[in-house]
Design brief:
CATH superfamily of the largest domain: P-loop containing nucleotide triphosphate hydrolases
Number of strands: 20
Bound molecules: adenosine-5'-triphosphate, magnesium ion
CATH class of the largest domain: Alpha Beta
Strand order of the largest sheet: 8-9-10-5-11-12
Distance between the termini: 15 Å
Order of helices and strands: EEEEEHEEEHHHEHEHEEHHEEEEEEEE
Low-confidence stretches: 1-17
Strand content: 25-35%
Shape: globular
């Protein structure tokens, strides 16, 4: 498959709208990693090549077990790659001890020290670096303000809500101002409402401190809302890297098209096209395909109408609202505007 996507964008817009050179913070060069399970050896990472710019928010998306956590652990130094290099601001840190790397990691389960107060947890990294107490106290206060937890310094972690605990974990990871912050499903344990709120807070914090984030989530909406770029991992490589817009509207492969936003894959002769459910038209002038409604279901504020085409292919159309004037078993013509169909490389498995 053609690798048109791993390049670094050379320029990025700065806040004032001027153009400046983007600075590469982290570079991954041909990272490979295999695990041996009993007798079977599995190659989890098959040559990851990637550059991340300063202040970028990158999300790794991919099915469970595809190697997202393993990659973050390699960047953090908690796991070693079989081959390849990790460069931080140009320095090869592949063999450097984790605590000497200017990166921090935030885990899904908070991992706060239970016997320490909020302030002690947040200040821990500075204490181990023997930073004077007064300076630690000032920095802890700043972080408490940033994560909106002023007044909580003396609380113990078990007296906090999930969202508050996660904010402490984030403050603790950011207090040393790491060059890169690695976040492995940091909001995964929170309920939906709190997760949405924390997404906004985290994004605000990231922009304010201009920290580079590499973020793992299972939640596609979260990835689309928060990321500057998304890397879709599949079969041990980054299958496509792009802005949320590119990943959603210009998927390069059938895997990306169906994994992100569940696009229809329409086979015509030998070609495969991705068509979003919201782009499928029903009984309009563009519609040339004979179809029959086989199912209707309502979810997430949308009605999904599943059609079977005369050749057996299934196509889903989505519409706002709870019903549509077509019954199961009814015939219709469906289709889409030409530019709604994106030709993709068929690779799904
Ligand atoms: N220490 C290990 N020993 C053996 N196999 C491992 C080890 N760590 C991870 N694996 C395997 O490597 C693969 C990738 O694991 P990883 O944890 O990186 O996946 P992931 O993408 O983070 O998945 P999830 O979304 O479920 O967290 C999995 O098949 C896993 O079983
Ligand atoms: Mg994982």
């Amino acid at each position: 498959m053609e690798k048109a996507f791993t390049s670094v964008s050379a320029f990025s817009k700065c806040n004032e709208g001027r153009i400046k050179m983007a600075k590469t913070v982290l570079e991954l060069q041909q990272i490979t990693k295999s695990f041996t399970d009993k007798t079977k050896q599995t190659e989890v990472l098959k040559g990851i090549d990637f550059s991340i710019n300063e202040g970028e928010f990158i999300t790794l998306l991919g099915a469970s077990g595809c190697g997202k956590t393993t990659l973050l652990r390699i960047i953090a130094g908690l796991e070693s790659a079989d081959t390849g290099s990790v460069l931080l601001e140009g320095e090869d840190i592949t063999k450097k001890e984790p605590y000497l790397r200017d990166v921090n990691m935030v885990f899904q389960n908070y991992a706060l020290f239970p016997h320490m107060t909020v302030a002690e947890n947040i200040g821990y990294g500075l204490k181990t670096k023997k930073v004077p107490k007064k300076e630690i106290a000032t920095k802890v206060q700043e972080m408490l303000e940033l994560v909106q937890l002023e007044g909580y310094e003396k609380r113990m972690p078990d007296k906090l809500s999930g969202g508050q605990r996660q904010r402490v974990a984030i403050a603790r990871a950011m207090i040393n101002q790491p060059k890169v912050l690695l976040l492995d499903e940091p909001l995964g344990a929170l309920d939906l409402k709190l997760r949405r709120q924390m997404q906004l807070e985290l994004k605000r914090l990231q922009k304010k401190l201009n920290t580079t984030f590499i973020y793992i989530t299972h939640d596609q909406e979260e990835a689309i809302n928060m990321s500057d770029r998304i890397a879709v991992m599949h079969d041990g490589v980054f299958e496509q890297v792009g802005t949320p817009n590119e990943i959603y509207y210009q998927p390069e492969t059938s895997y990306v098209a169906s994994f992100v936003g569940n696009a229809n894959l329409y086979h015509k002769a030998d070609a495969v096209y991705a068509v979003r459910a919201e782009s499928v038209l029903i009984n309009e002038t563009e519609c040339t395909l004979d179809a029959v409604v086989i199912e209707k279901s309502f979810a997430g504020g949308q009605l999904r109408i599943l059609f079977a085409l005369s050749d057996g292919q299934k196509i889903t159309a989505s519409r706002f609202g709870i019903d549509y004037d077509l019954k199961v078993g009814e015939q219709a013509k469906i289709g889409w505007k030409e530019d709604s169909a994106v030709r993709v490389i068929a690779n799904e498995n």
